[in-house]
Amino acid sequence: xxxxxxxxxxxxxxxxxxxxxxxxxxxxxxxxxxxxSATVSGxxxxxxxxxxxxxxxxxxxLVAFGWFLLVAFTQVLLARYLSYTSVHWAGITRATPILxxxxxxxxxxxxxxLDERVTPLLLIGTLAITAGIILxxxxxxxx
Amino acid sequence: MRDAGxxxxxxxxxxxxxxxxxxxxxxxxxxxxxxxxxxxxxMVAFTSALGAALLLPVAARGLKxxxxxxxxxxxxxxxxxxxxxxxxxxxxxxxxxxxxxxVNPLVATYPLGSILLxxxxxxxxxxxxxxxxxxxxxxxxxxxxxxxxxxN
Lengths: 143, 152
Fold this sequence. Notes:
heterodimer; A: mainly alpha; 0% strand; B: mainly alpha
């Protein structure tokens, strides 16, 4: 039950985040929004770590730091910047459903690189996503 | 008020698809890092700070031009920082208390929350045609199915 409550709080957190990104990009550029967002996340994150997880900071290895750098490049510079840009350019109603197709891309990576199986459920899900994207793309109108 | 205009919609969709692909690649990397006993919050703190440093040269020009923008734009942007942290924190907590098969399909429904908020507060700026709404429902439903397929 607690897991479901946390899951619903996660849903609310991401839903509000993209809604607020839409509000912010009506006044400033997506690149500025991403920069401010990542900076504030970093400051608040380090404050939490400094208070509750100080011993973890001392144990960071050079290899772990290398991974952090790689994740920072992919997650913040590419994924977060592109997602905020998409919310500004395409609007919430079009961009956020497409952003939620991450599991599909993860499965494609699994099938291509890890020889994972293609199941009927995966095929049905993929078809639904493709049909949905076609419907969203075909509709022209306000961002 | 900065409005992107309809010409940017196709590019926005390409950007969203690219972002989803990069988030997928990131999730693979995060799983590798998590195996080394690094606490999620330590990773989020480092990756956010490093990401901001990497983004600075890209955002510098725009930042200069945004100087005269209304203050509330910057305030909204700042609010997304703790919100993202909270969402990620709740996600990891959910995974600690429930199996992935329950958590991932539930989390995949977050666009419905965003769309509901946009419908309530941004109806003049967003498109809510039946075609877009049905498309959004199909994509979210499909993502829930793929999430279930992934953990099975």
